[in-house]
Amino acid sequence: MRVVSRDELRSLLTWPGAISALREAHLGSRPILKDLLVQEGAFSLFSRAVVLPGSGAGLKVASIHPPNVTDLPPRPVEDAAFLVIDESTKRITAILDGPELTRWKTAADSALASEILSRSDCETLLVLGAGPIALALAEAHHAVRPNLKRIWLWNRTRSKLESRSDELHRLLPVDIEIVADLDEAVSKADIISAATASGRPLIRGEHLKAGVHVDLVGAFQPSMREADDAVMKRGSIYVDSLDTTLEHSGDLLEPLKAGVIDRESILGDLYSLVAAAPPIRSQGDITVFKNGGGAHLDLIIARHALAIRLQVMTHRHLQKGEDESGQNRVDRAKQVVGSPPSSNRDPGAPD
Q1: Residue 253 to residues 147, 228, 243, 276: CA-CA distances in angstroms?
Q2: Going residue by residue through the chain (351 aa), what tens digit of pLDDT does each one get?
Q3: Most buried among 76, 217, 275, 334, by the most CB within 10 A?
């Protein structure tokens, strides 16, 4: 059984590779998904299982304890791992770092949708949130929209963005700015990507500019909202998976219950978007994508990382074999030619 750490995952994955892996997988079979949540006070034990016909199965297990942030020093709120199960043998073949895998699959999921739905001439990206997912979203969106000229960052607590801003400055060749006025930033952004745990809408539809693409990543519970009803009413709505969004996200549940939108307002999921020709959109059309995640995305990215790992290990093995083979040839040559004369040899000694 292989264990793949956070650092190894980072060394193996790239945004173009991860996004391409998701695109290819969404041309195949749809997943069978099942979630489990057990709670005791502030502690949550959460798991997501998937069977992906033709690609094996996987299980994410997460231990979530928000009070960890008050410890001295603070500890991570979430500890998680993802298990990969082989398609043919049904054996557990690998365990991958959960939070890092989540970072890659979540941002790649949104970026793939943006590649299909957002305008190709987008110049300004607005990212809401200050966690590791928000940073990953900035990188992934830039990977599919390399013409972006500026990335704006917003968070309720501005100080939490300082380190994120510095890191993005090192990673991306664009202007990075922390903004204070969210409504104004929303009115000027070409792509808006939100990764928060907000309980009330942050993005207001009245401020959206024509042609904007809205990417909703947070609000993963019915009580959470990142966008108000006006956003959902103005936009053409797509989701990554109906199984992980319709019954889970307040951004969809509340406007559906209020009659602001209906089931037919959701025009498709990532499987239908990838399989069909890109939707025809005018410059003024507003698109909304709800990223609900799912264990199938973890499994796709995990299998992609393991395939790259195998390639790297094979290359190293072959390289080592060539080095050893080359040394063996040198040794054999020495045996045939003989050792070079020693500087201590008596020059008068017979040959």
Answers
A1: 35, 12, 13, 27
A2: 899 999 999 999 999 999 999 999 999 999 999 999 999 999 999 999 999 999 999 999 999 998 998 898 988 888 999 999 999 999 999 999 999 999 999 999 999 999 999 999 999 999 999 989 999 999 999 999 999 999 999 999 999 999 899 999 999 999 999 999 999 999 999 999 999 989 999 999 999 999 999 999 998 889 999 999 999 999 999 999 988 888 889 999 999 999 999 999 999 999 999 999 888 888 899 999 999 999 999 999 999 999 999 999 998 888 877 666 555 554 544 443 344 433 333 333 333
A3: 217
* CA distance linking residue 76 with residue 131, whole number of Å: 12
Non-local CB neighbours of 92 within 8 Å, separated by 6+ positions: 1, 83, 84, 85, 86
CB 30 within 8 A of CB 271: yes
The CA–CA distances, whole Å, from 206 to 129, 158, 182, 191, 300 equal 21, 24, 13, 16, 37
Q: What is the pTM of this model?
A: 0.88
In DSSP terms, 51 is beta-bridged to 32, 57
| Tally of CB atoms within 10 A around 153 | 25
C-alpha to C-alpha distance for 309 and 231, rounded to whole angstroms: 42
